[in-house]
From TrEMBL:
Its main location: nucleus. GO terms for biological process: mRNA splicing, via spliceosome. GO terms for cellular component: catalytic step 2 spliceosome. SMART domains: WD40. Keywords: mRNA processing, mRNA splicing, Nucleus, Repeat, Spliceosome, WD repeat. WD repeats lie at residues 329-370, 415-447, 515-546, 547-580. One of its GO terms (molecular function) is mRNA binding. The lineage of its organism: Eukaryota, Metazoa, Chordata, Craniata, Vertebrata. This is Pre-mRNA-processing factor 17. Signal peptide: none annotated.
Length: 580
């Protein structure tokens, strides 16, 4: 018994105590005589049986009124997984209040401007009310129950809603009046009595005469038209010619149209110079015009006279060899747009914004005849054939090319195929054909006197080409394109675009700057919007030279047909300059 007790005591001690007991020589021994030390080993004493007591599982508990029994919801909670009561959902929030928040800041909101509740609305109903509001000015108030519609249920034009009885755009309003009935026209088999769709209405009246009110209106309209026509048909401006030299004829009786022979070069020669050179400096200025110069033309073949038209309504004849101004014509009531010599240079045509084309005698300065079709002429050209010198064509603002006969003064042909105002007319292929360009960004080729174009060139990438020049050898057309480049088209047979010959480097967008070639086909010259004269090499298309020629737009550049390096330019600064 003593041994058993000792082993239990040793079992109850931990390992650390064992180690310590081994180290210590004095081991603590259990006092077996102590009754408490062995109490847990003795058997339990028998206890008398107890009676089972009755328990109340739900006793009544006195609840204090101040104690909160409801479940609190987080105000920021978006979704609840059980069914809370109304009091729980709308219970006031507890907790400390931020004293710095205003009432507007403290209000619950889920977006910057406030609180927006998601609500389902039929797409059709929304579109119906939106269209009704935009058409009639009223719509149903979305905050009111639509089942109980009254006058207060609408927003916007409530009076209009009452008048239309709240009809929407998708609901039919008043019934349309019945269709007018037609007189029955018999059967289709009866040819004489069959009227079909041409039958008159039953209540239709055959009234040839207008009523008094209608007659008054018609009279007013006719009077306005006549007045407008009178304004358009006003008498053309009074022509006036001023000679700026002492004598019109020299000692031999020759006028200034006579080609001079003492200028160092043969102006009567048909051959071009063998080699041309770049012009480098300005040698003369003609400053006779008070406004911008619109066009310049050299005298045919010889080039000893220079014809210029301007926005000051004047046309001037100058001598290109720096001789003072010969003559000027007060020609039109509005700015002159284009001018053109005939083959001999004895006559020239002018086109102006006063809607008149005028034929002038170059020597005397007299206006021979006037032509108009009440539209603005944009360009004018004589037919270069010797046997057709009495015919000329003009490109008009109403998309037509009109052909006049000088002898009768009447229109003999109209070429009406363009979709925009006609800008240029150029004769090609030994004058059997002519090429026209227009604001419709197309190029059309016409046979003379046939009003249907046989060639139509228009690409999506093409721009308007308001200035076109034929090369001296007659093989190429140089077209000033509005995308700041000069395009070259073949002038024989197929009129193909020569993609290898594109001249770039200048800025002309918006201006019809005239292009020209040097007589030996070595160079291409053109003005630009900055007033510069640009010179390219024909073979390489390289921009060789650029000269600041004018203060404003340099609208035209002409290379003299008999000179090796003389170029004439004109600009919107009113000056005409000679470069060499």
């Amino acid at each position: 018994m003593s041994a058993t007790a000792a082993s239990l005591v040793s079992y109850g001690s931990d390992s650390d105590s064992e180690n310590e007991s081994n180290l210590n020589t004095d081991v603590e021994k259990v006092d077996l005589a102590d009754p408490d030390a062995m109490a847990h080993l003795k058997p339990l004493k028998s206890i008398p049986t107890m009676s089972v007591a009755v328990l109340n599982s739900a006793p009544e508990v006195a609840v204090k009124e101040a104690v909160e029994t409801g479940t609190h919801l987080d105000p920021s909670l978006k979704e609840v997984t059980y069914n809370p009561t109304f009091e729980t959902m709308f219970a006031p929030e507890f907790g400390p209040i931020n004293p710095f928040k205003s009432q507007q800041m403290a209000a619950p909101r889920n977006m910057l401007s406030g609180y927006a509740e998601p609500a389902h609305l039929n797409d059709f109903m929304f579109e119906q009310q939106r269209r009704t509001f935009s058409t009639y000015g009223y719509a149903l108030d979305p905050s009111v129950d639509t089942h109980q519609v009254s006058c207060s249920s609408y927003i916007g034009a409530v009076d209009e809603a009452e008048k239309n009885k709240g009809l929407t755009v998708f609901e039919s309003g008043q019934k349309k009046s019945e269709k007018r009935k037609k007189i029955k026209g018999g059967e289709a088999g009866e040819i004489d009595n069959f009227l079909g769709p041409w039958a008159k209405y039953i209540d239709e009246k055959d009234g040839a005469k207008p009523s008094e009110e209608e007659q008054k209106e018609l009279d007013e309209i006719i009077a306005k038209r006549q007045k407008k026509g009178k304004n358009e048909e006003d008498a053309p401006a009074e022509e006036k010619t001023i000679l700026h030299v002492k004598d019109m004829y020299d000692y031999q009786g020759r006028s200034y149209l006579h080609v001079p022979q003492d200028v160092g070069i043969n102006l009567r020669s048909a051959d071009a110079p063998d080699k041309c050179y770049l012009p480098k400096k300005q040698i003369h200025v003609w400053s006779g015009h008070t406004k911008g110069v619109s066009a310049i033309r050299l005298f045919p073949s010889s080039g000893h006279l220079l014809l210029s038209s301007s926005m000051d309504c004047k046309i001037k004849v100058n001598n290109h060899n720096m001789v003072p101004l010969k003559k000027h014509h007060r020609s039109h009531s509005k700015a002159v747009r284009d001018i053109c010599f005939n083959n001999t240079g004895t006559q020239f045509l002018s086109a102006a914004y006063d809607r008149y084309l005028k034929l002038w005698d170059t020597e005397t300065g007299q206006c021979i005849s006037r032509f108009t079709n009440r539209k603005v002429p944009y360009c004018v050209k004589f037919n270069p054939d010797e046997d057709k010198q009495s015919l000329f064509v003009a490109g008009m603002s109403d998309k037509k090319i009109v052909q006049w006969d000088i002898r009768t003064g009447e229109v003999v042909q109209e070429y009406d195929r363009h979709l925009g105002a006609v800008n240029t007319i150029t004769f090609v292929d030994e004058n059997r054909r002519f090429v026209s360009t227009s604001d419709d960004k197309s190029l059309r080729v016409w046979e003379w006197d046939i009003p249907v174009d046989f060639k139509y060139i228009a690409e999506p990438s093409m721009h308007s080409m308001p200035a076109v020049t034929l090369s001296p050898n007659g093989k190429w057309l140089a077209c000033q394109s509005m995308d700041n480049q000069i395009l070259i088209f073949g002038a024989q047979n197929r009129f193909r675009l020569n993609k290898k010959k594109v001249f770039k480097g200048h800025m002309v967008a918006g201006y019809a700057c005239q292009v020209d070639f040097s007589p030996d086909m070595s160079y291409v010259v053109s003005g630009d919007a900055d007033g510069k004269l640009n010179i390219w090499d024909w073979k390489t298309t390289k921009l060789y030279h650029r000269i600041k020629a004018h203060d404003k737009v340099c609208i035209s550049a002409l290379w003299h047909p008999h000179e090796t390096s003389k170029v004439i330019t004109c600009g919107w600064d009113g000056q005409i300059k000679l470069w060499d």
